[in-house]
Amino acid sequence: MSSSESKLPLRDIPGDYGLPFLGAIKDRFDFHYNQGTDGFFRSRMQSYKSTVYRANVPPGPFNAPKSKAIVLVDAVSFPILFDNSKVDKTNYFDGTFMPSTDFTGGYRLCPFLDTSEPKHATLKGLFLSTLANLHNRFIPLFLSSMSELFTHLEHELSDKGEAYFNTLSDDMAFDFLFRLFCEKSPSETSLGSDGPTFLNKWVFFQLAPLISLGLKHVPNFIEDLVLHTFPLPFFPLKSDYKKIFDVFYKSMGSILDEAEKLGLKRDEACHNFIFLAGFNSYGGMKVFFPALIRWVGAAGESLHRRLTDEIRTAVKEEGGVTFSALNRMSLTKSVVYETLRIEPPVPFQTAKAREDVIIHSHDSSFLIKKDEIIFGYQPLATKDPMIFDNSEEFIADRFVGDKEELIKYVYWSNGKESDDSTVDDKQCPGKNLVVLLGRLMLVEFFLRYDTFEIEFGRLLLGSKVTFKSVTKATS
């Protein structure tokens, strides 16, 4: 603890949970319908004049046994969620609930294991070593998948006058990930082109407690009863998941061999890699890639010209799209960090206090007692105005030069962006790969196009983007 932190006044955590059961339901309706996610957390922060407060967090009854949580929405208190000596993440991944293990072959997978469980280090180590062994394939495979995306994008623009990017991005992401782990195209297997559709349903059924469909003709209480009150069953997805499992199991022979050497069952390792590829990676890219194009597209031609100049100069001088060329593109990298800051793919982090612990916001200290749930809402923490100037704005060069040190406050990966993922933490094992792919996406766009125009809006879990035009590169 720093001397400045030790001098902060100890304050009771403000907020309350309302009446038993009814308080949780009221807060759930505020979260999904009355205020919306961002409004839910902002309104309480403003009402309590605190970035640390008590509230019921979704889904509550009967999807999660507990809804009472201590909410963190500032950049200073948030990192307690990454301190595995002080917090327990057993069965916590995206929220206060855990989907049925029916969705994952009957196994509790690595994301739901606490770091104190021996199998966590074994599985996380397998993920990290596998990605390290595959690193030479990242760039060529992604560039190949991006080339197909451009072909489809231009075809749709020519035929329809517009192109819906989200579907194109989903197809590209799945193609890349499948070829990375399975060493073949999904079109060469029984999956064909159905992989993204299968995974979209699989992810949706598990995240339904956090999703609102926004259907105008369906009363809120009916949607709440169907999506948020009880877990959605696995049986409608059983045959689809079996198809995915069978194809991955047959295609990942060498990776599963390594898993067996570590004492893991082949099927358990396969289910873990499906989750890594299909939920962590594909699910994350499903949100991140459209967000990246949305913010860059909305920034307009001025930013496009700056990116074009930086990217084409580096590629020309380095003789191609190489790691060396990418490392010269400081603005491109900053744009990726800024997208992850302003629209993080995973908005929630959850843990339980292992012991009584004192945490700090900018102006106060708070006591969290053993076994209390801690719930972080990341989109406010990474827009903390005490850390970031004009924190609600997308500023492309926010992390250029000396300002790159601010990436330690970008928490999208369940850890600080300045930290590397290890077997001893819960940080995303593919965090560096995600940043790399974001940079590669921008590089390939601006090698091919000078500028582009889009329309954008909101989807269930992120941005939706429609291309209206692209201007091909003139030089």
TrEMBL record:
Keywords: Iron, Metal-binding. GO terms for molecular function: heme binding; iron ion binding; monooxygenase activity; oxidoreductase activity, acting on paired donors, with incorporation or reduction of molecular oxygen. SUPFAM superfamilies: Cytochrome P450. Coiled coil: none annotated. InterPro entries: Cyt_P450_sf (IPR036396). PANTHER family: ALLENE OXIDE SYNTHASE 3, CYTOCHROME P450 26. This is LOW QUALITY PROTEIN: allene oxide synthase 3.
